[in-house]
Amino acid sequence: MKIKYGWFGMAVVSFFAQAQTTEPFKHSLKPNMIHVYNNQPTDASNVKEIFTKGMWYGRLRTHLFVDKWGHELQINGKDVRKDSTIVGVGGSLTYKTAYYNGFGATAGFYFTNGIGNLGSDEAYLYKAGKDTFSRYDRLTDGKTYIATFAEAYGEYRYNHTKVKIGRQIFESFLAKSNDGKMIPNTFEGITLVTQDIRDTAFKAAYFTRQKLRDHSSFHHVFAYGYDENEPLSSYTQNDDSGMHRGLTLSKLEARGIKDRLWIAEMKNRSIENFTLTANYTAVPQLLSSAMFQADYTFKNGSWTWRPGIRYMQQFDNGAGEIGGASKKLVTIGYSDPKSLDSWLLGVRLDAKYDVWKMHLGYTCVADKGDIIAPWRGFPTSGFTRLMGQYNWDANTKTYAAKVGYDWHAYDINVVGSYAYQDFDDDKPAVPADNSVLTLDIMQGFGAKQQFYWKARYAHVWGDTRTPLVGTPGAYKLDPAYDELRVEVDYLF
């Protein structure tokens, strides 16, 4: 297994085999880590060789998270913000069979154990480090670990086309593995990925279940767990930060709606130097979106430039009437409290000169409903999103700049980033305006980069005197915090 990494300071992925690329910006802005299986099992000539020619892939992993708030906070005597430190220790072991007449199978077992400074009853207070364990398991049984078969699928491949059925990783605009911590985000269903169309990569998926990184079992893809008689039920279904809290499982079941996730995505390079991407993601009877993106790469002397533009349209197919325009259920300041219709626009300019890379980005979201994206793909990723940020609430504008340096002599990759996030002051449920400064450093060792480490630091500060509309004399929460992440991995 080989890890490819770009100037963003993170390893970058694809779980289906792909050739190395010479595109200067191929991996420059991707924040996810993904495995690349460059070594694949050979074909089997008989049934016995399906297993004898199979291959094992492993990873040992440890991840430290240190979070310090600008101000710790209690509400009604209950802690809601508390400084924390936690270490995740674990890894994964994956087995891929050889392929017989195009058929094969893969199973991946993942383990993480979170050791931190907070007690079991305070597990909900961990910020980024909560993905090193299951909050539901920790709060109910005191378990500090997750042990799960996050991957288990059958596969058929023919030429450059693959069909997978079962538990698997899938990468698209809004649905990703987002494997930046201990266990990737995976889905249950069927997928098709093909590059047999000239100059085009196409993928499609139908998912019935999802397992977020901090869950020990698979759950609904687009339903929030809520039971007034069970306070911890919110941790049992899709409780991702991008999930709408009003689309509860009980409300969907009462209407006979089964949440299912449909995805179709195409990337075309028929025009020289142009990359055109289109994506359609839908949960029927609830919500859907369409995204179009164009990127153009050209050289000017020693510089390589890549301007890009992204447009996303979100369609409300019934979700707004059920849950409202705000994913946090506070619709003050929303023009139509019952509509999730919205759109997002992003523009960027990337530049590369020798070992230096630079980026300018801007995104804006319509002053309509919130953008809902709970599948670990981030609508502003690659344009303005920095570590740990959710900058796609209604009427949010973000400005970002990055500078990266590749220190080839030591295989060290460094990037510094800054973003200013202009949220809507009239919406109580969105954060106060803030600035984000991040520093990423990564170093890989050996020709195959089997051993690597990375460190990420974020400093956030912002407006502490933004009035909380609807609550006289109150202000929005202080957005300030500092966060450090350090990871060490060994692949075998």
Describe the structure using short key phrases.
4% helix, globular, 492 residues, 23 strands, mainly beta, 18-stranded antiparallel β-barrel, Porin
In words, what does this structure look like?
By secondary structure, the protein is mostly beta strands. It has a single domain (about 5-490), classed as Porin (Beta Barrel). It has four helices and 23 strands. Strand 6 (about 85-95) and strand 7 form a beta hairpin. The N and C termini lie close together (about 5 Å). The relative contact order is 0.13. The model is unreliable at about 1-30 (pLDDT under 50).
Brief summary:
This protein is mostly beta strands and 492 residues long. The chain has a single domain (4-491), classed as Porin (Beta Barrel), CATH 2.40.160.10.
Secondary structure elements and pairings:
Blueprint: E1 4-5, E2 11-12, H1 49-52, E3 55-69, E4 73-75, E5 78-81, E6 84-96, E7 103-116, H2 135-141, E8 145-158, E9 161-168, E10 186-194, E11 200-211, H3 249-254, E12 261-268, E13 274-283, E14 287-296, E15 298-300, E16 303-316, H4 319-323, E17 342-353, E18 356-365, E19 397-407, E20 412-422, E21 434-445, E22 451-462, E23 481-491
Antiparallel strand pairs: 1-2, 3-6, 3-23, 4-5, 6-7, 7-8, 8-9, 9-10, 10-11, 11-12, 12-13, 13-14, 14-16, 15-16, 16-17, 17-18, 18-19, 19-20, 20-21, 21-22, 22-23
